[in-house]
Here is the input.
Amino acid sequence: MASHVPVVQVNDVSKRFIIRKEKSLKERLVNAGRSKQFKEDFWALKNVDLEIMSGTTIGLIGPNGSGKSTLLKTIGGIIQPTSGSVQRRGRLAALLELGAGFHQDLTGRENVYLNASILGLSRKQTDEYFDEIVDFSGIRDFIDTQVKFYSSGMYVRLAFAVAVHVDPDLLLVDEVLAVGDEAFQRKCLDKIRSFQAEGRTIVLVTHSLGQVTELCDRAVLLSKGTVMFDGAPHEAVRDFRDILEERRVDEAAEHKEEVRHGRITHVFTRAAGREIGEPVQPGDDLIVSMTFEHDGEGLENWMAALQIDNVQGQVVYGTTSKRLGFQLSRLKEAREVNFTLKNVNFGAGKYFINASLMDDEGRHLHDLPQVASFDVPFFDLAVGSVHAVPEFEDLGR
Amino acid sequence: MAGLDESPTERSTRLLNEPWQHAGAVGGGVTGTIESVKEIWAHRQLLGLLTKRELKSRYKDSAGGFLWSLAKPLTQLFIYYLVIGQFLGAARNIENFAVYIFAGLTVYTLFSEIVGSGTGSIIANSGLVKKVYLPREIFPLAAVGSALFNFLVQFVILIVAATVIGTLSFGPQLLFGVASLVLILIWGTAVGILLAALNVYLRDIQYLVEVALLLFMWASPILYSWQQAADVLPAWLLEVYVNSPITLSVLGFQEAFWSEASNGVPLPHLALRMLVAGVIGIIALIFAQRVFSRLQGDFAQEL
Here is the structure.
């Protein structure tokens, strides 16, 4: 790995948005005296410090409105911070919206040149890359058609193709990887991987937590404009889920439509015949024990749900008591239930247990994400989430 | 390009040696202006493409294409010539009235297009302003570019007409034409840049501009001679009137392409006045750019 040098420094950046409720001259004149009450301050970023090293991939995650896009735009120079400063070096390309510079009435070819120029390529460089760009987009037949006749998929393909040929040192990406069909998405991710291998720096805003754990070396979790966590992606993802869960509970409390007091108090897991915390061997029976209680008037028709995630945050297993055919009686006092998974064959690695309490319509009343975990020991014959003993024969035919 | 076969180590070594730069727009003062000019120069190819885009998209899908850009000024010329010149009798005092009007109209249309489309340029390109960092002056400048193209087309017609009618002769007076063009470009750009920025915050400006442009057309000697205004206006107002950069450009154009063979009375010290207006114009341009760069920090959130 190449030595990392800092390429972006965000120093104590704050950004205030003033939301004005009137826009026209008349309204402003009429309200001139009391303009205060027609303004609203909103801090999108508060005292954010960040240093980004070259060759790393950083994911910015956080709930909607947490300031992650604002931070990205500040790094890109599109938004000026209210206080603090952003410094960076190297060549920058911002993919905040695919095809931002596309003009509906121009042909694909003209738009390639225009967009490449917006992203900083000279005409000569675009000439050089033109065939490559068109091949990558896969829409050679339509390149001389006006882009307004393109399907949204074709549009995005062309835009992405231009963007990845710009040769940036620092690439800012905002939510744009979630477009196109599956094959094209794979192409995009492959391109991002090769960018990583070439030592380029990538800053990624995304809602796909799977992408964060898969692609990023580091994740920054933002909430209400401040950095809540900065470090290993899977820890950031866990904290993020906690925030989402808190918010969901707050929202539920606000709505008061039906106060649901049910909650999970306790979850632990172990393999049958082993202690808690001991590694789980392939072929073991895995026991997950959950304790629920309800401090309201009680809950009819509830169900217990279990989900197992791998380190990348992907779901590898899930089941509920309803699925197993159980109608559980009214929940009030503390109640312990057990899931026993027979003969589990997980691949090597760490796994997390998510526990949920749901009502009969499948609404989540309480979630405990990543509340417990277990390890499966290293297996030198294979990798992946599934354990199976491999055999190999060379049939020589 | 070096980038594609650069190894990660080479890349980080190169980055280590690169100077830090501030994200976004550059700082204040006159150095800020110089930096901005450098930045715009670096994006000159883009400026060309944006200009082309404006022109292409304006008459998209129409069979007549850019010929339509001639329809309006030629119709104007026809109406003014007939109504003002013949019906109202302005042509009796001004020889070669058609060339007279068209010289003034050509230069004024340039100004009006620069200011008119410049004012709306940031909003029209809000998609780009919000999503990509570019020196944003580029958008009003692209408006200048496309206005210049239309100007050139009209200018060719003016030259042809002046040659046919016989008011064009080769001589030093043609320099007034060049000076007029420079003057109107400086002032048009200054006003366009300033209003483009202000319009983001106060959308009423674009409507105000339409009205103001109509007013300024009649406040310059395009359809009548400046002496006619001199007979009516009080002395102080006349000074304001004749020294406005628009009046000076119009007079300069008439001087270059009409006066020589016609009965024009040149404004005293026209060259000197144009020079002074030009110098003030450059100061105004720098001022407009400073205001623009101060305001552009919040463009992305205001749009």
